[in-house]
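LAB NOTEBOOK - FOLDING QUEUE
OPERATOR: T.R.
BATCH SIZE: 2
PURPOSE: Compare the predicted structure-token outputs for two unrelated chains run back to back under identical settings.
PRIORITY: normal
REVIEWER: second-year student, initials M.K.

ITEM 1
FIELD SEQUENCE / FIELD STRUCTURE:
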Amino acid sequence: MSPADILQALSGLSALVVGDVCLDRWCRYDPALSDPSRETGIPRIAVISRETTPGAAGTVASNLKALGVGRVSILGVRGDDGNGYELMQALARRDIDASAVLQAAELPTFTYTKLINDTNSVEDRPRVDFVYTGDIPPAVESAVVQRLNQLAPEFDVIIVSDQAETESGGLVTAKVREALTAIAATDPAKIIWVDSRRRGALYRKVLVKLNEQEAEESCLAYFGQLDYQALRQRIGHSTLIVTQGPKGAVIVGEGSTQTIQTRPVEHPVDICGAGDSFNAGASVALALTRDPAKAVEFGNLVASITIMKPGTGTASPEEVLAASAALQK
């Protein structure tokens, strides 16, 4: 299938994004208005405009919807707070089904506030994060597993966004991983695509995508050397994908390794969210083509567009077609 064929077929696909969802707030401030605070004397940061977007798993979902996937839903957790309300509004604006985003009063909504200088559009102030570093409550974990088992049969593709930096993980706990393994065993044809920042080697029977650094850390931790085949065998899936930024990606299959090169993009604007764009494009392309090489090529195509946009941008079908045509020249 060509990129055009893939795009045409996406409206018939359904995708469920499972994992850590957050609110990204892009706040532009005017340094000329940094008057000292009367209370502390510390100059204020005077925000003059802001934009909110879904982040992490929400970025994956936004990319899926922008590409034209027919049904996009997200399973995650938010707090009972204003940031949670804004997150739900941001998802609704993108026509992403957020009915499975569970509300938990015990947790804050993960929120990342970027402060951008309005005079030069540079993010030059420390980010302000609303975080939670503990384990999710058992009742919330049980609810997530229950909803995952209920929803899984309805979707062609399940994409897991396991982005938490904590040791035990965020939404994707050991029990959630076990549920994913069981789903894979029940329906081997279903695409379950996992992007995990720290726990890729802990998944079983699903396709795991890691970047070079993540793959190296996993290999050294478990085998003492760089061995992608051993890592794939440990996970127990026919395919492991290791992305290499501008160099492309390595597809590790059963007894084979294939490198898919990509055309380097000169002067990328913002690589933030490139992995999420790749995951969105590659996972649905794999569901349609059943060809990991075609999937990686399509994922690279999508990511090549979004890295030319500020923030966590998305790629439209028209942009993908134009980028594909440019590669043929």
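ITEM 2
FIELD SEQUENCE / FIELD STRUCTURE:
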Amino acid sequence: MQFKDTTATRKIFQLKKRIRAVSGGTSASKTISILIWCIDYAQTVKGELISVVSESYPHLEDGAMRDFMNIMKSQGYWRDANWHSTKHEYTFGTGTVIEFVSVDTYGKAHGPRRDVLFVNEANNLSYNIVDQLITRTRKIVWLDWNPSEEFWFYTEMLPNRTDVDFITLTYLDNEALDTVTVSEIESHRNNKNWWTVYGLGQLGAVEGRIYKDWAIIDEIPHEARLERRGLDFGYSHDSAALVDIYYYNGGYVWDQRLYQLGMFNRQLADFIKNLDLPQTLIKADSAEPKAIDEIRSFGINIQPVEKGADSVKNGISYIQAQRISVTKSSVDLIREYRGYMWKTDRDGRILPIPEDGKDDCLDAGRYGMEKLMAPPVRRKIVGYTGGDPTTGFGRRPVYDDPLLP
């Protein structure tokens, strides 16, 4: 993969103030352009420390760290001997080090001082954590994020500091994008909420999000009980996604087990067989009956979900009513959760239909939750009959369905 000089990269290199904040839409090259700046700086300046920080190590590994390695290798800079795989740091010939650090608590922010800080997807970290990181940074601070909703940068930092450069990038600033990706992004123009955030890179409205207030947890609690697995099929364009559903303390924990393109049914079956408790029931997309039959033929306990009118909306409503936690290793699931939005019409009115896009893990989780711990249906009293007309003594209730309990 070759990394081209783009408008995004040129705009990044023009920023001069201590705090350099980069908001932007999808595929705008925010993270890659900042990493290119960091690499250039590390090759120029001697003996400094650059910290690339995010909410979790899995998030770093799947995002900024992977991008860093791809850039270094594509440009011919990478040397295996310079990479410390345990400390997750790369030492350049200048003696400058780029480290990748997970900081999800205030205590972790009290680490050694650094010269340059890059907080990737800064909106996922609390202000007190980032403020402490900035305080312990001697020179330059980079921040980037998708502007899906207002957070501390807009309320605490931008109004109160004069040492902030703030720019917004969009996909149009990234000339390295292929035409297929550009067409996919522009196909969302009619969805005002999605287009505002991910197309134009502008601050969006929180009311467009489908799921809110999920907790991100370190690991599955020991007392949690595995109930189901949910499977969404994929092959060339969509990823196959497998999500474990645990019951814990009155709520549910979702744990991403698989997110991968190009898997055949036999490969899916082999993957499932190698998991703990491989005979756990899997609920899968009923639109793929042949795939379900083939996977079942390999000895997997799998059933199709029931689909019908409003099944997606009803499934979403049921999940919205539950207390959901997600393991922090579920990187793709978390990314989908934060970007899952209702469609809107041209006037911005919200429609009861999810926006098309990356929702493979969320679909898998919804399949796994089908009829799980569903509340019993109770008959309703619709009136009374008999009894004394004055006192009501002796009257009997009339139910909407006499056959229900």
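REVIEWER COMMENT (ITEM 2): Residues 30-44 form the longest helix (15 residues).
FOLLOW-UP: none requested
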